[in-house]
Amino acid sequence: MPNAKSYNKLLQGGFGLTGYDAVAHLIEEIPNASVEGPKIMIACVAIGVSTGFIFLVVLLFVAGDIDAVISSTAGPLLQILYNATGSRAGAVCLLIFPLMCQVFATTSIMTTSSRMTWAFARDGGLPASRFFAKVHPKLELPLNSLYLTTTLVVIFGLIFLGSSSAFNAIISASVVALGVSYAIPPTINCLQGRTKLPARSFVLPGPLGWVANILGIAYVILTSVLFLFPPELPVTGNNMNYCIVAFTIVIIVSTIQWFADGKKNFRGPKVEIGEAVIVASVPEVDPQQGPSNGKGGNEFESKKST
User: Fold this and answer.
1) Residue-wise pLDDT tens digits, 95-138
2) Cα(52)–Cα(14) distance, rounded to whole angstroms?
3) Residues forming beta bridges with residue 256, ordered by sequence position
4) pLDDT digits (tens, 9 = 90+) for 11-60
């Protein structure tokens, strides 16, 4: 009977399918976004499925002794590459390729996370929103939000030096939170009968849309539960999966922040529905020039889709 560690292998397969949300965080910077955005999302999933499947299948064919791979102090991937090549130099050279992919992924993650932080601050959803909503006038990027995300990443990285269990709990909680964030929009859409979205350029046919939404929601529910399992039995303090603890802390902090600040200041983004435009006004925040000079609230303006 498979143990919880076997279920957590879903994480490796799911890793190749994530990241398509990056286009949503950069959507305001994409020309003809209503048409190109969905195309990019579909292309990301297609590329991830094709390349990820081939890569993982090849690794399984050349893995060798699975128990030795799992227990290797060099790490599973490097051990598989060594088993396949029989050469330490060859294994290290091959390891450079996935490491370069991680470097590129880090760059895209920092880009999208800074934009997401800026957008949330622009709408008044963060503490010190005025500061983090500023856009650098020369670089034309949300530099303060980028500083915030970089600082948090460094802090979380330092946690690993003190406690690997705490670091792994944070990483695991981020995976679960990512899945939950993916599932919330289609869940709301399905609960409303998939009829509340306005007219748009890209629409999945009715039956296909329902299948895609329900399948995605079911996958998130399944993996979110399984990712909370401990890696092995019996469960001890050392091998306990503390993901649920970290995730609960995030929920508590977010709830406190909402009632302490967000409920009063968060107004939501501008939404265009046909010819009508709903504007969210955040007091004294200008996404291009920073805080206003005491002239009251500013309404954010963006180009209408044509």
Assistant:
1) 898 888 888 888 888 888 888 888 888 888 888 888 988 888 88
2) 9
3) none
4) 666 666 676 777 777 787 788 888 888 888 888 888 888 888 888 888 88
Beta strand 276-278 pairing with 271-273? antiparallel
Extract the tokens encoding 113.
């996370």
Give dist(CA 92, CA 294) in Å, integer.
58
* Cα first-last separation, the chain: 57
Whether this model's pTM surpasses 0.90: no
Helix axes 164-191, 243-257, angle to 10 degrees: 60
Q: List all residues 6 or more positions away from 199 whose beta carbon is below 8 Å from its beta carbon.
A: 274
Question: How many CB atoms are closer than 10 A to CB 294?
Answer: 6
Q: What is the DSSP string of the chain?
A: ---HHHHTTHHHHHHTT--TTHHHHTGGGSTTHHHHHHHHHHHHHHHHHHHHHHHHHHHHHH---HHHHHH-TT-HHHHHHHHHHS-HHHHHHHHHHHHHHHHHHHHHHHHHHHHHHHHHHHTT-STTHHHHT---TTT-S-HHHHHHHHHHHHHHHHHHHH-HHHHHHHHHHHHHHHHHHHHHHHHHHHHTTT--SPP-S----HHHHHHHHHHHHHHHHHHHHHTTS-SSSS--TTT--THHHHHHHHHHHHHHHIIIIIHHH-----EEETTEEE--EETT-BTTTBS-SSS--EE---PPP-
